[in-house]
Amino acid sequence: MRVSTEGQAEEGYSIDAQKKLLEAWCVSKEIENYEFYIDPGFSGSNIERPALRALLEDVGKGLISHVAVYKLDRLSRSQKDTLFIIEDVLNKYGVGFVSLSENMDTSTPIGRAMLGILSAFAQLERETIKIRTRMGMRERVKSGLWMGGGKIPFGYDYDSEKGILVPNADAETVREMYRMFLSGYSPNAIALELGLSYEKLVVQILKRKTNLGVIAYKGEEYEGRHEAIVDRETFDKAMEEFARRERGNKADSPHLLSGLIYCGECMARMRYQKWGKKGYKLVCYSQQRSKPYLVHDPNCSAERVWADEVESEVISDIFSLGIEKEESEKRTVEVRESEKLERKLKRLYELWSEGNDTLIGVIKDCEERLARARKKEQRQKEKEKEEEKRQEAIGQIKGIKDLWDGLDMREKRALVRSVVDKVVIFDGKINIYYRF
């Protein structure tokens, strides 16, 4: 039993109502040994419900012969979940399923046929409700009202009575952020100056169109009824400044491994730092207090290493990658075993449907063997997929190895990032973690 809303309870779906009907059914069938599994206040859109999980565990332990519900959607409103519970769990352990409202009993051919039809309608009802909810939300936003609830944008409060956003005391902070950014401050400097937690928050606030009096919903923008914090001219200038800085950063960045280097002692990121006329060293951010949110351990004592030595080691390792071929014979055998078990299981099902109940044990054993074979096959497929990615990456590296010196820094960085996940430096050792 379950009930997710007060409205359902008022319509006759209450727990007490369901319990009385199910109890009456048990009496009519002269069933004395029964137990109630109750999930009050839970939606039927998924199966992660305490009582339902307990029920399925008891089914697996062999403690249950039948499962009865007042109505099919009390089990689940998802067609996929309903079919999974009944076909893959209840049927697997020989447990019958009964729905009082639909007069369904899965121990009969007609009951099994009705199951698919009614599950489809339960799914249709759920998705119809979802579409109506979305349509209602879109109409609300179109009229200029805020979506209600959820995360309220920085600089605003939500007036639930009027249904709109209202600028609060932080609105002036938002205006100051635009002024500072347009006068040349970096997002990190703005965060430090205004006491915000990290620079990405500054970027998010500056790029948020809610500040213009606009509401963004599902990829569309609508004119809101709330007051704008900044005017369109200021916002557009800020976006142009973002674009200008991004172009400059991409063109001027001289570093091959930017964003890929980590300190092995505290696992904070490492940055390039100019080290006199000799070049750059890689320094742990925990030792650089300019970006507090990147500090992992203020007492980190990781050694600073020369960047060109690390870059040279990484490039050398990438180009030295070898190709290891794996035989596919094992997978072929496993696929054949899986197909053989599927054919055998199909024959057993046909014999069982003709009334041969002595095959239940054989069927269960065959199902378990098939499940194991499929798992092995899946693992092998995943390995082969990873190997395909690895060979593709290595092929890409080999194809341009001779052209490396002729590539510009942007092309080199793109290549390295396509195969390297991260580089960890610890105790003088360079550990390269590849994406494959």
Explain this structure to me?
A hairpin with a 2-residue loop joins β14 and β15 (429-434). The chain has 14 helices and 15 strands. Among the domains are: 2-140, 3-Layer(aba) Sandwich (Rossmann fold), CATH 3.40.50.1390; 156-251, Hect, E3 ligase catalytic domain fold, CATH 3.90.1750. The strands form 6 sheets. The protein has a 3-stranded mixed beta sheet with strand order 3-4-5. A 3-stranded mixed beta sheet has the order 10-14-15. The chain has a 3-stranded antiparallel beta sheet with strand order 11-12-13. The model is unreliable at 322-335 (pLDDT under 50). With 436 residues, it is an alpha/beta fold.
Topology diagram in text:
Blueprint: E1 2-3, H1 6-13, H2 15-28, E2 39-40, H3 50-60, E3 66-69, H4 72-75, H5 79-90, E4 96-99, E5 104-105, H6 109-142, E6 156-159, E7 164-167, H7 171-182, H8 187-194, H9 199-206, E8 214-217, E9 220-223, H10 232-252, E10 261-263, E11 270-274, E12 280-284, E13 305-306, H11 307-319, H12 329-353, H13 360-400, H14 409-419, E14 420-426, E15 429-434
Helix pairs in contact: 5-6, 8-9, 12-13
What is the helix fraction of residues, given as a range?
A: 40-55%
The Rg value, from CA coordinates, equals: 31 Å
Whole-number mean pLDDT:
81
Order of helices and strands: EHHEHEHHEEHEEHHHEEHEEEEHHHHEE
Coarse structural class: alpha/beta
Termini separation: 47 Å
How many distinct helices? 14
CATH level 1 class label of the domain at 2-140 = Alpha Beta
Strand order of the largest sheet: 3-4-5
Which CATH architecture of the domain at 2-140 is right?
3-Layer(aba) Sandwich
Strand content: 5-15%
Largest sheet: 3 strands, mixed
**Which blocks of ≥5 consecutive residues have pLDDT under 50?**
322-335
